Amino acid sequence: MSTVGAPQRYRGERLGLPESGPGSISTAGLRVGALLVDCIASALVAGLFVAGIGSNHDIAHRLPGSWSLIPFAVDYVVGLVLGGQTLGMHLCGIRVIRVDKHAGERILPLHAAARTLLLMLLVPALIVDKDGRGLHDRVTGTAVVRV
């Protein structure tokens, strides 16, 4: 039976993923929640290192600012390569998997770095396809699924 031209019944069907439960495409809410956790954790980590810099004692000079991108990038690249998830993803019960021709294999450091860089630009994450995957997922052949 051919599925060419058949309408997609649920997100992830074209990728061979289940409709619901473990392995199904994550909701946008879980993804945003995980991203917020990762952003807050990265800001806290960066804040530990930049809080004492400078002689000015107002709060604006003690905020980590762009320095929080360093722990954010480390969290994403290392987390995706080693376990397929970041701290925020772990807490939200989601993970990143490969859905390209290398499905089931670990995420390569180059793919993790490219995905992280595109995510840090934010715009690619807002451009989603029918499966709910952001542009950063499509470029790297990945998808975010429920654990």
Structural features:
48% helix; mainly alpha; 147 residues; two-stranded antiparallel ribbon; 7% strand; single chain; elongated; 2 strands
Note the topology:
Layout (H helix, E strand, L loop, with lengths): L27 H23 L8 H4 L6 H15 L3 H6 L1 E5 L10 H12 L2 H4 L8 H6 L1 E5 L1
Helix pairs in contact: 1-3, 3-5
Instruction: Tally the helices.
Output: 7
Quick one: how many beta strands? 2
- Main sheet specs: 2 strands, antiparallel
What is the N-to-C succession of helices and strands?
HHHHEHHHE
Distance between the termini: 31 Å
Give me the Rg, rounded: 18 Å
Strand order of the largest sheet: 1-2
Give start-end ranges of low-pLDDT stretches: none
Arithmetic mean pLDDT: 89
Strand content: 5-15%
> What is the helix content?
40-55%
Supply the number of structural domains.
Answer: 1
Shape: elongated
Structural class: mainly alpha
Describe this structure in words.
A two-stranded antiparallel sheet has the order 1-2. The protein starts with 27 loop residues before the first helix and ends with a strand. The mean pLDDT is 89. The protein has 147 residues and is mainly alpha-helical. It has one domain (17-146). The chain has helices at residues 28-50, 59-62, 69-83, 87-92, 109-120, 123-126, 135-140; strands spanning 94-98, 142-146.
Summed up, what is this model?
This protein has seven helices and two strands, in the order ααααβαααβ. The chain has 147 residues and is mainly α. The chain has one domain (17-146).
